[in-house]
Every structure is written in C-alpha cells, then in structure tokens.
Amino acid sequence: ARQxxxxxxxxxxxxxxxxxxxxxxxxxxxxRTRRTRSGAYITPATVNRFLAGLSVATKWGWKELRWLRSNxxxxxTKGPESAGVIRFLSDDERKALLDAARADLDPNxxxxxxxxxxxxxxxxNLRSLTWADVDxxxxxxCVSETKNGDGRWVPLVxxxxxxxxxxxxxxx
Length: 172
Hints:
With 172 residues, the chain is mainly alpha-helical. The chain has helices at 2-11, 21-31, 44-64, 91-103, 107-119, 123-127, 160-170; strands at residues 134-135, 140-143, 152-155. A 3-stranded antiparallel beta sheet has the order 1-2-3, with no helix packed on it. The longest helix is centred in the first third of the chain and has 21 residues, at 44-64.
C-alpha cells in the first residue's frame, strides 16, 4: 500500500495514455534519491520492489481491464540485485550453539536447532511442525505450509532423525 501510494503521488495525475516507460523511468530516478530512516539512499532492490508493485497494477489494467496496450513497467530497466550473504557456521560456532542448546532446560531447543541445521527449514516451518508431520518410516518431515504455498517432504538427514526420534519417544 505504501509503495502504491508513492506511485499514485508521483504518477497519479497522468492519464493512462501518458503512462509510458519514459515517465516511469523518470519517477524511478526520483525514487532512487529517497532516503531511509537511517539517512542512506534506498537500495536498487527496494526500487525494484516498488517497480514490481506498480507492475502488478499495470498488468491488471493491461490484461484484465484492457485499459493499456501493454505493461509499460516491463520496459523499464531494473536495478542490480545483491547476491545476498551466504554464511555458514564454523565448526566452533556450530559446536558452541549445540552445546548451549543441549544445556538449556527446554529439550525442544536442542531438537529445533538440530532440525534447523540438518534440514534448513525456516523458523516458522519448524514452529508449526506436529508429530503428524513426521514420517519415521520414510525418515522425512512433511512441510505443508511453505513460502510458495507448495507442500514438500524434507529428509531427516544427519543426526536429525535420531534426535527427533528420541524427542518423540520422550514426548509422544
């Protein structure tokens, strides 16, 4: 809503025949000069998210309503996206984390951390797991609510099976 409000303030006075890639690119240039609360310029990735929001609206006007001949946002150059930071725990960090989890009074902490490390599941997926989601015969977990909406089976590899099985035997 915040992004669409920005576009409305920038381009809302235009009639649809004037909503051209050039006008959108000019607005994109103004958007790039915006600053965050910390005072830094917004990132190219954030500008791309603004463009994506506008693109959804113009696609609807183009495909569903037939108010546009095409989606003009598709002709506007997007900024470079960061590859992100891929970081893994070192052996010492992993050992310290597991030792601290093992020492915690709540046995769920250790099981959750082992599952997170062995499966790569998101925190929300781990929190929503029930015993009905675990298939010990297949050594797998069924994750029904994923980010993209598609369910999937995740194998229990490494110590995950053993930890989960002993956790289950303690708390069926």
